Amino acid sequence: MLRDDLQNTLKESMKNHDTETTSAVRLIIAGLKEKDVDARGRGQEKATDAELLSMMQTMIKQRNDSIKMYIDGNRPELAEKEKKEIAVIERFLPKQMNEEEMLNAIKSIIAETGATSMKDMGKVMGALKGKYAGQMDMGKANSLLKSCLG
User: How many angstroms separate the first and last alpha carbons of the chain?
Assistant: First the structure.
């Protein structure tokens, strides 16, 4: 489904001469192909949707870091370009969870995994990534998890 949406958006943006969207979608597709190659190395046919959603969240984080650097470097035009790429990438991500929803999901996973201490953090984070990839910011989830377990 995600792959089809990307291809359709690419075709549509090319027809409409929307170079910003075309460029951003091509970056996503390039990352997708790289993930597929990695998956074949692990014996899978192609990357899972969870892996692709995680990749796109990483792309957004990279762009946010770039925006900060461009603003600090007094390059607002480059920061604006990065913001537009983020908007395109976010179109393909599921609705993001708010902090309350994240906390409920974390408590649910803690109960499922039987986690009781910080030693179980890796197990809980793995379950969160598997179940909620693309829906929550794992950096925020990490800090919320620490407050729940600590």
Answer: 39
Residue in 147, 97, 89, 91 with CA at minimum distance from that of residue 118: 147
Q: Of the candidates 123, 1, 125, which has an alpha carbon nearest to the alpha carbon of residue 53?
A: 1
Domains of the chain: 2-90 (1.10.1510.10), 99-149 (1.10.10.410)
pTM for the full model? Answer: 0.74
Rounded Cα distance, 98 and 15, in Å: 36
pLDDT of residue 62: 95
What's the pLDDT score for residue 135? Answer: 82
105 C-beta neighbours (distance < 10 Å), count:
19
Residue 148 has a pLDDT of 86
Tell me, what's the pLDDT at 139?
Answer: 82
Distances in whole angstroms, Cα of residue 113 to Cα of each of 10, 66, 95, 100, 149: 41, 37, 25, 20, 12
pLDDT in the model for residue 150: 77
Inter-residue contact 22 to 80 (CB < 8 Å): no
